[in-house]
Q: What sequence folds into this?
């Protein structure tokens, strides 16, 4: 009996192992079709090698992969598992087939429903909830079983305790492993990102200073030339084009410059009210041109020391991206909300624009990643760099076609 339990446990470890070894490099290991497939195989193996206890009582761990997939992947991932489980169960036949069908249907209806909330929980809570749900599912199953058999003797209760304990224990071990994998992936991504920021800011500091001076000089002389009376209109056109392009180069350089180390004369200790209002006023005309309505709420008393230029630049970049995302949809609403929550300054920037897929979100903040024709792909990188310097984090929530929310949390 113990050997079978171990065997079942081994089946459950398989997908986890394969993910660690082969798929840890992917940004989003869940929602993966292969994972659903591997879980299905695990489930079938669990059903095929059930744990036989005394008095002909048979049970297995099939609901563990099922619940895991349902919780992490939602309805669409759980559905194939449900189908496979029942097809296999009908093929095996026997007295318990129909109750088992009803029971799995109930689990299919209830558990994936919790998925959206489950994914948002913290790691520890997810482990706790997964164990509770596994124990609860097994508990319901045992209650139904108890109602069907009339002899509720001591043996039955012993089995109940045994089944509940194994389910809880196996689920907690598997969940701890899964959560550790997720944490490792997140940590590695964070280190990669901060490494990228370091490289960029070092390069930026050295290159942009050198480039800025020649740009300013050239642009000054071109402006002088533009005012001259002796140039023809055609030549004037050329000069104006050159000036425009110089301006663009200047813009890119100043985007780059702001990656540099915080400067002491820019450091302030404040509640960000001045920066928030200043940047809002700066983007107002831009918003109006694109028929974007700006909602602004400020409600923060916490103070923090930061480089005000960088925070301003970061906010402007995020506002601009929001407005640009609504450009194609012919307007919308940009909601800016700055508040405090448990000693953290929380900045939420929400747009009703085109939104992003998970894949696009994971590429945010990589240098030169842009989907816009005129884009530089530096705006988000700068935003991440500025927030990184005040030890804050940026969370992104987005739905394709509906809009995006950037949630910045800065500890004080
Ligand atoms: P740029 O704006 O120059 O393209 P950014 O670094 O500011 O560069 O943004 C990178 C990419 O991220 C954008 O091209 C866009 O595809 C995507 N993006 C950023 N913010 C949003 C948003 N609020 N809604 C939709 N897509 C966004
Ligand atoms: Mg941008």
A:
């Amino acid at each position: 009996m113990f050997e079978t339990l171990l065997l079942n446990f081994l089946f459950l470890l398989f997908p986890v192992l394969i993910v660690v070894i082969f798929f840890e490099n992917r940004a989003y290991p869940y929602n993966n079709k292969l994972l659903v497939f591997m879980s299905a195989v695990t489930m079938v193996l669990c059903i095929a090698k059930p744990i036989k206890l005394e008095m002909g009582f048979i049970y297995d761990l099939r609901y563990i992969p099922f619940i895991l997939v349902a919780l992490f992947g939602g309805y669409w991932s759980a559905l194939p598992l449900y189908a496979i489980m029942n097809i296999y169960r009908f093929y095996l036949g026997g007295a318990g087939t129909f109750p088992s069908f009803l029971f799995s249907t109930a689990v299919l209806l209830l558990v994936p429903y919790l998925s959206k909330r489950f994914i948002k929980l913290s790691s520890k809570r997810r482990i706790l909830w997964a164990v509770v749900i596994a124990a609860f599912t097994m508990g319901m199953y045992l209650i139904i079983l108890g109602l069907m058999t009339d002899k509720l003797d001591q043996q039955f209760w012993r089995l109940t305790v045994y089944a509940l304990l194994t389910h809880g224990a196996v689920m907690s071990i598997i969940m701890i492993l899964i959560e550790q994998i997720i944490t490792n992936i997140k940590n590695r991504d964070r280190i990669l990102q901060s490494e990228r920021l370091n490289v960029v800011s070092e390069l930026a500091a050295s290159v942009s200073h050198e480039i800025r001076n020649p740009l300013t000089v050239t642009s000054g002389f071109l402006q002088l030339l533009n005012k001259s009376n002796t140039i023809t209109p055609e030549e004037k056109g050329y000069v104006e084009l050159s000036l425009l392009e110089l301006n663009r180069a200047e813009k890119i350089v100043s985007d780059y410059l702001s990656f540099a180390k915080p400067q002491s004369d820019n450091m302030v200790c404040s509640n960000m009210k001045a920066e928030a209002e200043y940047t809002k006023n700066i983007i107002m005309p831009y918003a109006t041109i694109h028929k974007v309505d700006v909602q602004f709420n400020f409600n923060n008393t916490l103070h923090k020391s930061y480089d005000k230029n960088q925070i301003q630049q970061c906010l402007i970049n995020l506002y601009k991206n929001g407005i640009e995302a609504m450009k194609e949809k012919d307007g919308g609403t940009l909601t800016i909300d700055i508040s405090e929550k448990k000693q953290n300054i929380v900045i939420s920037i929400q747009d009703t624009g085109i939104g992003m897929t998970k894949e696009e979100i994971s590429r945010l903040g990589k240098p030169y990643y842009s989907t816009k024709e005129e884009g530089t792909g530096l705006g988000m990188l700068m935003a991440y760099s500025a927030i990184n310097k005040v030890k804050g984090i940026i969370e992104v929530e987005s739905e394709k076609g509906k809009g995006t929310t950037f949630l910045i949390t800065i500890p004080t």
Observations:
- The chain has a mean pLDDT of 88.
